[in-house]
Write a structure and sequence with these properties.
globular; seven-stranded parallel sheet; two-stranded parallel sheet; alpha/beta; 342 residues; binds UDP-4-deoxy-4-formamido-beta-L-arabinopyranose
């Protein structure tokens, strides 16, 4: 039987690289596209090293519809995983048009071409940010979304709604939105990982850069929340597990096992960890001490959010498996690889 091909947009990015590896390991062919706006060609080399072979790659900006059209003309795929997007929450507040333009125009191009070329399956990278400050925890897929507090979050909500409407309206058009919690870690090979540009916004890259001596001190944003140790609670999901959730979702789409034309799944571990707990686990797992201090709350942070993963467990047959200590060792191994630290 011929292998199914999956188009991976933003495939040079953090989650895109890990998912590309997982797809190929699961027997899929991939066509990866990226414009390297927030990634490096070395990411593709890392993927190829892990896999021990070349992958099909095209340098394409998904906002350039004619360039994208050529990809649709050249390759026969039934499914796209659409990762390509900007993702800095703070920047989206100061530059909303940049976010709406890039994240929604690229997405519209993809959806229009999927329809035009009769390619049925769209897998969209959504985010737990759509739940905002939920009243009941853990959150299920039925937990009401809350008004977005950033243009970035709003692009995720709008994109979910567009996908739902397309699936309702068009024949042979199917969508899955995966709502990621907090993706962390790296492939155990340390050949791929997150490559934040400038000062990292996210916790784990800030931790690893502090451990590497690039940042002097990690600021813990608030220890006066109504949580057991006063710091925020999050659901940290290993990026390798997250990548496997994409494979499970693609399997479900291509084998015609979807129960609705548009489905949503939470992708997390189901277990919350506080910011301080994560720091302590990082120190222990890697046998080092981190320089950190308690600082003021960061505007826009929710005190706690974690996933009810029952639906993904039952319907996708997927479950987070990686141990958080292994995850944090992999995160540090990657930082050391990038910095050339022995
Ligand atoms: C986690 C916790 C911080 C940095 C965001 C987006 C989400 C998703 C992932 C991305 C919070 C605390 C952080 C630091 C700290 N999207 N923290 N010091 O905010 O849960 O989610 O990233 O593509 O949509 O909203 O993740 O890693 O920024 O923060 O104390 O230097 O760590 O306050 O409690 P967040 P995060």
């Amino acid at each position: 039987m011929a292998k199914e091909t999956v188009l991976v947009s933003g495939g040079a990015g953090y989650i895109g690289t890990h998912t590309t590896v997982a797809l190929v390991e699961a027997g899929y062919d991939v066509v990866v596209i990226d414009n390297f706006s927030n990634s490096e060609p070395s990411a593709i080399e890392g993927v190829e090293k892990i896999l021990g072979r070349k992958i099909t790659f095209e340098e394409v900006d998904t906002c350039d519809k004619e360039a994208l059209r050529k990809v649709f003309e050249r390759y026969d795929f039934s499914t796209i995983i659409h990762f390509a997007a900007y993702k800095a929450v703070g920047e989206s507040v100061s530059e909303p048009l940049k976010y709406y333009q890039n994240n929604l125009v690229s997405y519209m191009n993809i959806l229009e071409l999927m329809k035009e070329f009769k390619r049925p399956n769209v897998l969209f990278s959504s985010s737990a940010t759509v739940y905002g400050n939920a009243e009941v925890l853990p959150v299920t897929e039925q937990t009401p979304r809350q008004p977005a507090t950033s243009p970035y979050g709003n692009t995720k909500q709008i994109a979910e709604d567009i996908l739902r409407d397309c699936c309702n309206a068009y024949e042979n058009f199917y969508g899955i939105a995966l709502r990621y919690f907090n993706p962390v870690g790296s492939h155990p090979s340390a050949l791929i990982g997150e490559l934040p540009r400038g000062v990292p916004n996210n916790l784990v890259p800030f931790i690893t850069q502090t451990a590497a001596g690039i940042r002097e001190c990690l600021a813990v944003f608030g220890n006066d929340y109504d949580t057991p140790d006063g710091t925020c609670l999050r659901d940290f999901i290993d990026v390798v597990d997250l990548a496997k959730a994409h494979v499970a979702a693609v399997n479900r789409m291509v084998s015609g096992k979807m129960k609705e034309k548009y489905e949503i799944f939470n992708v997390g571990t189901g277990t919350p960890l506080s910011v301080l707990e994560l720091i302590t686990r990082f120190e222990k797992a890697n046998n080092l001490k981190l320089n950190y201090k308690i600082a003021a709350r960061r505007q826009g942070d929710v005190p706690a959010v974690w996933a009810d993963t029952t639906l993904a467990n039952n319907e996708l047959g997927w479950k987070a498996e990686r141990d958080i200590d292994d995850t944090l060792r992999a995160a540090w191994a990657w930082e050391k690889h990038v910095r050339g630290i022995k």
